[in-house]
Write a structure and sequence with these properties.
CATH topology of the largest domain: Elongation Factor Tu (Ef-tu), domain 3
Helix content: 10-25%
Strand content: 25-35%
Order of helices and strands: HHEEEEEEEEHEHHEEE
Structural class: alpha+beta
CATH superfamily of the largest domain: YaeB-like
Length: about 280
C-alpha cells in the first residue's frame, strides 16, 4: 500500500502465500491506520509545551554574580514556590527523606533566544570555543538547565507549598519544570571524566570588608539578614567576574544586586575588598 510503513508491506509480502490480496488489504489498512495514529500521538507529545510547576525566589536578583555551579555558595538560599495544581502537599510525600534535589529549569533571563553551536566557557578564560553540548552554556537549542541543590525543608500551609533550598545558582524568578530527588548511589560517579573541567576551580579568592561595609553588614545580620556576611564571602570568593576582566580589571570596581542590596567591591591580585553595601529602594 502506498505510504504504508515498510514493516507493514513486509508483513504483506511474507503472508502472500497464506492470504489472498483481497482478504489481506482490510487488515493492512487497519494496521496502517493504527500506525498513523500512534505516530500522531508521538508528535503531539513532542509538541506539548512544558508545564512550569514552580518559581524560584532567590537571593540573586540579576545574572551577574551568580555562582557558575550550584553548591559553590552554600549559604545562597531561597525558596521554590509551587504553582497550582502542583502545590498539592501529597505530591511531596517522602521528599523530606532526601538531602538534595535536581531542579530542571528554564533559562528565562536569556536576552538572545537563538542557540549557538559553539560557546566560550569562562573556565577556559573566555577565549577558547567549544561545542555547546560540551558545556553548560545557557545558549542551547532548548534553554533547559539542571541544578543540584540542598533541600532544607518543606513548608505546606495556607494552600501553599514552599521548598526551602540552599546552594543556589539560580536567578530570582527562575521557572522550574521538574523536581527529582538526588540519588547518591546513582548520581555520584567518582570515576567519571570531566573533560576541560575535570578539577574544581582553583582556590577561592580572599574577601575582605572595608570598615564601614563591615559594620553595616554586622548590623544588618542582627536586624533581618542572618548570615549576610558569609553569603557575600561565598558569592564573591568564587570570582564572578567575566574572564576578560582577570587581566584588565576596571578601575571603578564591580557591583551586583544581592537580596535587597547593591553590593560593590574592588579586586586586584591580593583579593577582593567589599567597599559598600547599599539598600535598594522598594520600587527599584
Amino acid at each position: 500500500m502506498r505510504g504504508a510503513p515498510s514493516e507493514i508491506n513486509g508483513l504483506y509480502a511474507n503472508t502472500g502465500n497464506l492470504l489472498k490480496a483481497e482478504l489481506f488489504t482490510p487488515i493492512k489498512s487497519t494496521i496502517y491506520r493504527w500506525h498513523q495514529s500512534r505516530f500522531r500521538g508521538k508528535q503531539a507529545a513532542m509538541n506539548d509545551p512544558f508545564h512550569v510547576i514552580g518559581i524560584v525566589r532567590s537571593c540573586y536578583k540579576e545574572k551577574f554574580g551568580i555562582p557558575r555551579q550550584s553548591g559553590q555558595a552554600p549559604t545562597a538560599t531561597g525558596t521554590l514556590e509551587m504553582l497550582p495544581p502542583y502545590n498539592r502537599p501529597e505530591a511531596f510525600t517522602g521528599l523530606e527523606g532526601f538531602s538534595h534535589l535536581w531542579l530542571l529549569f528554564l533559562f528565562h533571563g536569556n536576552r538572545h533566544r537563538e542557540w549557538k553551536a559553539t560557546v566560550r566557557p569562562p573556565r577556559l578564560g573566555g577565549n577558547t570555543r567549544l561545542g555547546v553540548f560540551a558545556t553548560r552554556s545557557p545558549f542551547r537549542p532548548n534553554p533547559i538547565g539542571l541544578s543540584a541543590v540542598t533541600l532544607q525543608g518543606i513548608e505546606a500551609s495556607g494552600g501553599k507549598v514552599l521548598l526551602h533550598l540552599g546552594g543556589l545558582d539560580l536567578l530570582d524568578g527562575t521557572p522550574v519544570i521538574d523536581i527529582k530527588p538526588y540519588l547518591p548511589y546513582a548520581d555520584s560517579l567518582p570515576e567519571a571524566r570531566g573533560g576541560f573541567a575535570a578539577e574544581a576551580p582553583a582556590g577561592r579568592v580572599p574577601v575582605r570588608f572595608l570598615p564601614a561595609a563591615e559594620q553595616l553588614c554586622r548590623q544588618l545580620e542582627q536586624q533581618r539578614y542572618p548570615g549576610l556576611r558569609q553569603l557575600i564571602i561565598d558569592t564573591l570568593g568564587s570570582d564572578p567576574r567575566p574572564a576578560y576582566y582577570h587581566k584588565n580589571p576596571p578601575k571603578s570596581g564591580f557591583g551586583m544586586q544581592l537580596l535587597d542590596f547593591d553590593l560593590h567591591w574592588e579586586q586586584d591580585e591580593t583579593g577582593i575588598r567589599v567597599t559598600a553595601l547599599r539598600h535598594r529602594p522598594d520600587d527599584v
